[in-house]
Amino acid sequence: MLRTLFSRRNFLASLIAASCERLFGQAAGMSSGGSKAQSRLPPTGGVYSKFTDIAAQAGLNAVMVYGGEKQIKFIIESMGGGCAFLDYDNDGWMDIFLLGGSRLEGSPAGASNRLYRNNRDGTFIDVTAHAGLLDSGWACGVCVGDYDNDGFEDIFCTYYGHNKLYRNNGDGTFTDVTKASGLFDATTRFGTGCSFFDYNRDGHLDLFVANYVEFDLQHPPIPTMENPTCTYEGTQVYCGPRGLKAGRHSLYRNNGNGTFTDVSEASGIAKHRGSYGMTAVTADFDNDGWPDIFLACDSTPSLLLMNNRDGTFREEGFDRGVAVSGEGFEQAGMGVGVGDPGLNGSTSLLVTHFQKEASGLYLNDGKAQFADITMDSRLGVETSYVGWGAAVADFDNDGLPDLFWVTGNVYPEIEKKYPQYPFKGPRILFRNRGDGTFEELTNECGPAISQLHASRGVAIGDFDNDGDLDILIMNVNETPSLLRNDAPPGNHWIKIKLIGTTSNRSAIGSRVIVHYAGKAQMQQVLSQSSYLSCNDPRLHFGLGAAREADVHVLWPGGREEKLGKIAVDRLITVKEGSGIVPNLSHALK
Amino acid sequence: MNSLTASGLGKCVLRSCIPLFLSLSSTVGLAAGHCDAPSALLTKTKPATAVAYQNLGQWFEGKGQLKCAAEAYRQQVLLAPGSANAHLLLGRALQVLSVGDEAALELNRAVDLDPSSKTARLALGALEHDRGNQVEALRQWQEVIHLDPDSITALDWIAKTRIEAHQYTAALDLLSNAPDNEDLVVDRVVASSKAAFFEQAITTGMTAIEKHADWLRLRMAVATILVQRNRFQEAIALLEIGLQSQPDQIDLETLYLRVLVLMGDLSKSKPYAADFLKRHPGNFDGLYLNGLLERQDGAYDAALLHLKAAEAMRPDHFDVHFNVGSALAKLHRNEQAKAEIEEAIRIDDSGADVHFQLAGVLRSLNDTAGAKKQMEIYQEKLRSRALHDQTISLAAQAAQKLAAGDAAGAVEAENEILKILPEDAVHFYDLSLAEDRMEDFAAEQVALKRAVELRPDFALAYNQLGYLAIRDNDETAAAGYFQKAIASAPQYAEAESNLGSLLAREGKDAEAEQYFRAAVAANPRYTDAWINLAASLAARSMFTEAREAVHNALRVEPTNPDAVKLLALLPSAQPAPNRK
């Protein structure tokens, strides 16, 4: 019997197939991804550092308020703040500065940035109020540097709102000199990354400031399910950054008299718009003696601004292989670890990304040509979490810099629906195996690493001056974490503090190459890295079994100093032009 | 597309089932080669009757002997030339045999003999569609809708035709209140998503799936849209439920595997992909997706084996070439990589990443200039995508503000978009909608005129300009705009109805009738147009036709108050002719 069955299912099938066909070669939304999870190799075992969170007994007890706890309505709540190890009182012990935020409904009592002075006994005391640093705005980034070369480290903080420059008065207090220094901007901006650096090599620290997006809290974009930039996996979340206008980045030249001049236009910085700037790293990537700028950018190509040595910069992130992933995908660049994990005497980058994207490892060939070695180095095994503050640091002092980053989601709403996207995540640690690959040890280094937190900023430093690198972490709406490192015995180390004379006093931009046991490792003195954070300015090198090291210092002003056969397991202080000088009285136990 | 591939012609599908050795059956005198039928049946053809040949034809059809069936039906037609059914049976058999012209003759004859035969019209519509005569095909399906507003097959055909022609809103209009049927829901879902009403598409689909868990094609359609919206987890859950009930449904399995791969979790996707390929050796998707996963995991040689096999099966597949090229590049086989990636770009140049890959390969081959050019293309595509995201966000905000009654905010957002896309006709149209809400008609008109200037075939904008002209009492201009709307979109029912209304207002009811008829032809479920048609007919005292038009409206919307009211006003008997 003939029946009427004129179905056009083939037509439908072609419609569906056409929709799927191009999925794999094309970004489909907010987070374009690209580097997928790799298979894990069997663990190799071996001894490694153990970490213990001693924040509570150390007295770091203030909750760092930042946005809604159950729901984040606007993008400003999601950022979280950076943190810093700095020696603001020049006693040779690392103090702690942490950035906090606010709430949409207003700041709760106790919300503020926090300064903790190191008591030199494993504990700290909250001196925020005394120091004049109480502030409860939407702080994001911190960079540290002695902008007035008076011998005391100053602090610059970025905000959603108005950035602030705090001059260190040298007496344990700070003064907000934003307006007096010419850095005040009346418009509301979304400051994120910042870094002091001497781009014109005049001996005075200039300032680079990144801005994230243009966002008006009075007229914010309201999330709807129809707007793909306000949804994640079918859940309505805050809008952005995609869909929002990118912020304009700024460069301020230090006039040498305590004031700055905005040279964003003249330097060419202002024209590089379109990228959502996050962490800023200023360092000499091509080893030409002039500092460049790497700006990790969220969901857009990261920027590599190369110094033209004439007060201007050129953007070469794409040409130099560090703007996007090795497969050409824009990723959610948040934090940046800086170091020399390949021991090739150059400054390489670890960039943290969103969940479902591996953190990217970009190997510098010494001339600022970067190769994305993420998958070759086996970092692709970990794609479960949103990554933030990051570090390239030799925690076990075996002479091979390891990789570390913290995690935490930006959408507290989604874990109820999808447990695989938890708001709190573990700390991620990869041991350098010395063969170009890394091995994840997140579950092998003690509960302080595997515990779950929604973390943002990370600073690396030796707060107890015991010769290994500890970890300070800013957790959102929690007290901070201070992970004391107990490195395995037997390995040696050297720590180097630099004091500039003709170069800037903080020696920011100095490059130090340490030669040990046939290896050469470079580190630079940075004003910001990780996620909007600042590490201990003393450069720490694990040396493994080596009992001596040669130290080569390249000062930002151009001077070089070579220091041979330095004994290990000690801090040395090198003053520009004077070689090794005595350490500060309380420098080491 | 061959619409008859799934026809109910027994087990015979496609031409391949035509018997290879045809011999004339002396018993029945068919010129169709060898046709063996049971003697009982053959006996019944003596003496020859139409019914006997129909039975014989159907028997042949059941056995897949279509030529024999056609010859039997031909005998039936000879014996019963006035039988619509005989012509229909012959026409459809010929259609399957791809004897298109003859089939069309027979089916047209069937329709002529029985204009109310939905089956004949559907068959004729399908035939004309396959022959490329879309207008005639559409006419036949619309006639079916007139006969039966709930005809699923006709609605399905018309909806799909509209979707193919990118007339998504028209398709959705047609399908509003349509019967609960999987094909039609899928059409609605597809039309909604194509019109960028993604949430509507998902909600429509999910609601239907809750009622009909066994509608797998709908499940797949919704899953696809969820993936497009980056809602992978929901897509996975939806497909997994489907696979529980139908684990061996290969289309479902394939889509599931694709989504797993896209999610990037190798721990789940790799074993599933390997198992899929084991169960379906030689399957294109199995080869392609296993290769892709191996490439992602750094197993480039293994990836190439699978990808090359897939490439041999589908040499026109963008992504296979792209992945082969990427794997070759990793293996430093740059010349081959270059050829593969260039082929991928030739097939589909829409993505950015492929240019990035090519730039890398060209750099390795020391073609600095070529690499630079590719990077420029790549970066330009990234910039375009960022601006696209920005406009999507602004457009969503504008729509949201408009819905919340903040027309000024919507105007502001649309103007922001137009700063980014100063020559985007659609956003000028959207701006006009917001200005209309603000009752700033002068500004609305400026925006609409700019829209049609940028897109001279922008039917919606012409239609709206027509409204504005009526507001300004410029009926001549209004008519002109409606005509332009119709010329730009010949199936634009609203514009047809508007022009009809305008003419009716001028007392030109006969002319108006033509436009109303065109409107209901374009959308037989357009109740307003049916009511307008009825009114224009009633105005000329054509009460019988008017009643029929009202009844058509009521068949679509049984409680439509205007239709009910008009029906009550119409005299029950036809008066003496007094037509204008």
Automatic annotation (TrEMBL), chain A:
Residues 507-572 form the ASPIC/UnbV domain. SUPFAM superfamilies: Integrin alpha N-terminal domain (SSF69318). Keywords: Signal. InterPro entries: Crtac1, FG-GAP, Integrin_alpha_N, UnbV_ASPIC. Gene3D superfamilies: Integrin alpha, N-terminal (2.130.10.130). This is ASPIC/UnbV domain-containing protein. It comes from Granulicella aggregans. The lineage of its organism: Bacteria, Pseudomonadati, Acidobacteriota, Terriglobia, Terriglobales.
